Input
Amino acid sequence: MNFACVDVGSTFTKAVIVDGEGGLVAAADHRTTSDEDVLVGLDNAVKATGVEPDELLVCSSAGGGLRLAVVGYEMLVTAQAGYRVGLSAGAKVVHVAAGKLDAQGLSDVKAAKPDVILLVGGADGGDEETILHNAGRLKTTSTPIVLAGNACAVPELKEILPRAVVAENVLPAIGKLNPGPARAAIREVFLRHVIGGKHLSKGPRFARLVKGATPDAVLTGVELLATMVTGDLLVVDVGGATTDVYSVLKQVDEGDVAGVLAAARTVEGDLGMRWSSPGVVAAAIQEKFIDEPILTVTDPSAASFETDERLAGLAVAVALRRHARGEALEPGGPRRGGRDLRAVELVVGSGGVLRHRPPAQAGAILETGLRDDAGGWPLPRSPHVVIDSSYVLAVAGLLAAEHREVAVSLLESALT
Output
């Protein structure tokens, strides 16, 4: 039995063949063919492995991935909770609004061009007025909506938004985050509406193949890997457009009113390689890693290995700082959602800039961030560092639902 696990990315489509024992059989890449039909690149990537698979599993971030807007009751409570759940579902959160939407607020939501709107607000039995008001505002939009707010308001919300997908409240009680149902609902909407709506393929086959957004698959793989280590887990994925950080903590601080996720993801949209290098440089200057834009890349397609490695190291350092200290949803607002990473036992590095380098060089890039103690960020004390050179986290995430034992064997052999 051979499984072909394929990630259709914005730039490259990556195919990995895994056998029934969790062994890596083959792997191949192909340019993502969004300009014609993504199935061309997908089929060519699988063909390039030289293996005829028995089963094909696909995740996708092509076409910009999953763009999510969150509309909540209070910025520091339910909107913050919705934001965290949206990231855990593999979304790029492009807008967060709180309170009763007025005409300008609705215009701002629409201007962000989300693929999905997550409507939350009120703990169960709490405020109903705000979420009902916002539902009334949003009923004029054609964007798919996931309802995950006050359970007491659901009957009336269904009448206002009959086509919305309903999930359990993301924050049923203050400080108690409930991410699973909303994450599943967002995945359902992504598969039903978003994949086909991006016109990435002419027929229905691609939509049938895709199991979820790539970051959602990666987080599923991360969560599975976390069950296999005794301490905490940290994953840093340096991509072409973003740097994503995932952490799974065995113990979390329950004092946050917006709740805390044991498995969390942050997305740094200004930190990426090559064409995104200006964002890395600007962020590094702001964080005082460098004093001037000495690494600006005038021709990203011809950047040197040394420049790539320096940019990647800075992206890792800035992304880890932000992940550890939390962030503000409003300019000048308080930072929330910081992560204490001191007990991290295993650090996994991913992304092309790490996978395509010898382990020692890739490890040195990660060390740039892991040694950063300038601001007292709670970073790992003495972790074991490995590189996901075969891109198995996304693969394990695709396999986990129906072939868990295969996914576990794969992770054991590649990352532990």
